[in-house]
């Protein structure tokens, strides 16, 4: 098996799942308790508040989800593994945008308070879905159709980061 995703697959994920929805986070409404945060000193690193640990932690979660997609997909075929990996990487990235909205649980936020984020993530997820299901794009990008069980795996693996971070936020350890 070569690379589970190609350079063009990664480029699509970066633009559709990461880039465009990422801009939507810039219009996220200010949190009500923002003034309770202490000011950051100008000579203080942005990593002093545990950001580096969180980046490493979520990277591990993303990696594990992706490796599981590859492993499960390979039990069917290499083409299934590549398709599952592409969708899991893309959808995990999109879903993670909701983790990035706030230090608070997504269940404490008004879901539609950032309609631009909702719109761009729904459109991004739909584009990724269409890329792996339409025959023309399947042929162009070397994807194959997934069966029901494979889609269940893709959905479950794609929400792992959301569940993981929500649990950490619930126990105030994120």
UniProtKB/TrEMBL annotation:
Pfam families: Cation_ATPase_C. It is a multi-pass membrane protein. The chain crosses the membrane at residues 51-72, 78-99, 111-136, 148-167. SUPFAM superfamilies: Calcium ATPase, transmembrane domain M. One of its GO terms (biological process) is potassium ion import across plasma membrane. GO terms for molecular function: P-type sodium:potassium-exchanging transporter activity. One of its GO terms (cellular component) is plasma membrane. It is found in: Cell membrane. Gene3D superfamilies: Calcium-transporting ATPase, transmembrane domain. Keywords: Cell membrane, Membrane, Transmembrane, Transmembrane helix. InterPro entries: ATPase_P-typ_cation-transptr_C, ATPase_P-typ_TM_dom_sf, Cation_transp_ATPase_P-type. Residues 3-171 form the Cation-transporting P-type ATPase C-terminal domain. PANTHER family: CATION TRANSPORTING ATPASE, SODIUM/POTASSIUM-TRANSPORTING ATPASE SUBUNIT ALPHA. This is Cation-transporting P-type ATPase C-terminal domain-containing protein. It comes from Tetragenococcus osmophilus.
